[in-house]
Write a structure and sequence with these properties.
It contains 18 helices and no strands. It is an all-alpha fold. Helix 3 runs antiparallel to helix 7 and helix 14 crosses helix 16. The chain binds a DNA duplex through helix 14. One of its GO terms (cellular component) is cytoplasm.
DNA sequence: CAAAGACCTG
DNA sequence: CAGGTCTTTG
């Protein structure tokens, strides 16, 4: 009872920021090198194939969005602390020797590679068959534009005054949602491109065939390497602009007590270092509707829908491809591998950044934007071709929790502060839940909240001592100091663009703390409880992409 | 009384 | 972040 009031206040001095830390270095040189290398390969393949058939303008949004996160904020990152998770998981720890797996997997994978190659060849033939009859019919005139402009997605981040100014380095999230891109699957849709070829010129077809062959082989190689080295590194890139789509239609829930804050200044949370840029209406944009992007729908604490309507614009709901991809990788992997080659130093990242926009695309994203019909066709068609190797699809279900899981949990915190255990289970399909695991995860979120509330209280008090009187003056914007702190804590690697809904919640929380403290409520031992209660009702739906088990792995490696 | 959380500590 | 304690809740 009594311990509630005192302790937090003690350290609320504005100086006690948990900053000044080092980046947790988890990338090995080898990882880097291979990744770049493979990216380059992919790029070439894609370029070739596309160059053959597509009118250049067709699918490119026009800007190449450099997604290389090369320039991290020189800022201090979190304390580098070993992520001690998998180690001491007490009871249900299975301590597999990872390197073993790798070795064994090596040969097996090779065999599978051959298999794959063959199968892909089959696929090509299918493709050609599909192409030839069609080409003459089409004639040279009818190259229609098959890619609806992707402006819609882009507008989200482009139009955001804050995104632009506050996080120039955060470019991991350009496209729409969707997260994982699979080298394997990706090639296939490309292979369908010939349909677009204007004329039925034999030469073209012939050339195409050659290139296809080459491309496919390369792609397979790439996949193999990837799989052996760092399966999912950089594979996923969260696209938050879609979170809103994950739910019904309430794009704009405004919980009671939440209102638009139109104050031109967000004093406390706007650190001195922020100079409003010309033309960027910093504060006057209402927090409630910062972007045209949908807000996270605030959902009452209900059971998460296991599957969102596939009718949503957001391709991330294309679950099938997802699973599909899992299967492929699983097969190649045999089981998750953790191989680290020792290799050459990193290479130029130029080639990569050049092509990164496409490289970042996900198969199912492509499918909707660029390959309306063909993708599904190929996709379905090719499926049976693959594996003679059946594999338990949910292959890498592990018992312990990996650092990747932790990362993912943190990202999830942006959407849900109080996830139920069932929600957690739904979002960690690759985790074998038991009592310990569950409580550990719950504990994680408990810790997350702790940090969160401490920060909120701290900044609220700071605002008060700074002379702020109107809670509406407070808001958490992307350039706020508190935002930086939070982002650093929950999203170190900028794996995800912090969703606007989180900013809203944070703002609200901040204001609530402000009100409470300035009203002197903090003398009450349990004065925070009402705030907790409010916040606990404001969890949003979590984007489906986060559900992917691959996502954890990807995060693991990055 | 058990479970869920907050809070404290290391 | 994990462990432990203490409260609260149902």
């Amino acid at each position: 009872m009594e311990r509630e009031g005192s302790p937090p206040t003690a350290e609320l001095g504005r100086d006690s920021l948990p900053s000044g830390q080092l980046p947790s270095s988890s990338l090995t040189d080898a990882d880097w090198f291979w990744d770049e290398n493979i990216q380059a390969k992919r790029a070439r393949v894609e370029t070739i194939v596309r160059g053959m058939c597509l009118s250049p303008s067709a699918m490119l949004p026009g800007s190449e969005r450099a997604r290389e996160s090369s320039c991290y904020p020189g800022k201090s990152r979190e304390r580098k602390r070993k992520q001690s998770l998998p180690t001491h998981q007490g009871p249900q720890k299975s301590g597999p020797a990872w390197d073993h797996r790798l070795k064994k997997g090596g040969t097996r994978v090779k065999e599978q590679l051959h298999l794959l190659k063959q199968q892909l060849r089959h696929l090509q033939e299918h493709v050609l068959q599909a192409t030839e009859p069609r080409a003459p019919a089409q004639g040279s005139g009818g190259t229609e534009q098959r890619s609806p402009p992707r402006a819609k997605q882009r507008s989200n981040f482009l139009s955001s005054p804050w995104t632009v100014e506050s996080k120039p380095h955060q470019n991991s999230n350009k496209d729409i949602c969707g997260a994982v891109k699979s080298r394997t699957v990706e090639v296939q849709p490309q292979a369908e491109e010939p349909m677009l070829c204007p004329s039925g010129s034999q030469a073209l077809v012939e050339a195409l065939r050659k290139e296809l062959n080459r491309a496919v082989s390369q792609a397979v190689d790439s996949v193999l390497q990837q799989v052996l080295l760092g399966p999912l590194r950089h594979l996923t890139r969260q696209e938050p602009s879609c979170q809103g789509l994950a739910s019904e239609g309430r794009s704009h829930a405004s919980p009671p007590g939440r209102s638009a804050h139109k104050d031109p200044l967000a004093l406390t949370t706007l650190p001195r270092r922020v100079q409003p840029q010309a033309g960027v209406p910093l504060g006057n944009s209402s927090l409630a509707t910062p972007l045209d992007s949908p807000m996270c729908p605030v959902s009452p604490r209900t059971v998460p829908k296991p599957y969102q309507s596939p009718l949503a614009n957001c391709p991330l709901t294309a679950v099938p491809s997802h699973i599909w991809e899992n299967q492929i990788l699983s097969q190649l992997l045999g089981r998750g591998s953790d191989g680290h080659w020792s290799g050459s130093p990193p290479q130029d990242s130029l080639s990569q950044s050049r092509t990164s926009p496409e490289a970042t695309q996900q198969p199912w994203v492509l499918s909707q934007q660029q390959l309306p019909l063909s993708f599904t066709t190929v996709h379905l068609e090719s499926r049976p071709l693959l594996p003679s190797v059946k594999m338990e699809q949910a292959s890498h279900i592990q018992e312990g929790l990996s650092p990747g899981h932790l990362k993912k949990a943190k990202l999830m915190f942006f959407f849900a502060r109080y996830p139920s255990s069932s929600l957690l289970k739904a979002y960690f399909p690759d985790v074998q839940f038991n009592r310990c695991i569950t409580s550990q995860m719950i504990k994680w979120f408990s810790n997350f909240r702790e940090f969160y509330y401490i920060q909120m209280e701290k900044y609220a008090r700071q605002a008060i001592s700074d002379g702020v009187t109107n809670p509406k003056m407070l808001s958490v914007l992307r350039d706020s100091e508190i935002f930086r702190v939070l982002n650093t804590h929950y999203n170190k690697g900028n794996d995800l663009e912090v969703p606007d809904c989180f900013l809203e919640i944070a703002t609200l929380t901040l204001q609530e703390f402000f009100r409470a403290v300035s009203a002197g409520k903090d003398t009450d031992p349990s004065w925070k409880k009402p705030i907790y209660k409010i916040i606990s009702k404001l969890d949003s739906d979590i984007p489906e992409i986060l559900k992917s088990s691959n996502y954890s792995q990807e995060l693991f490696r990055s």
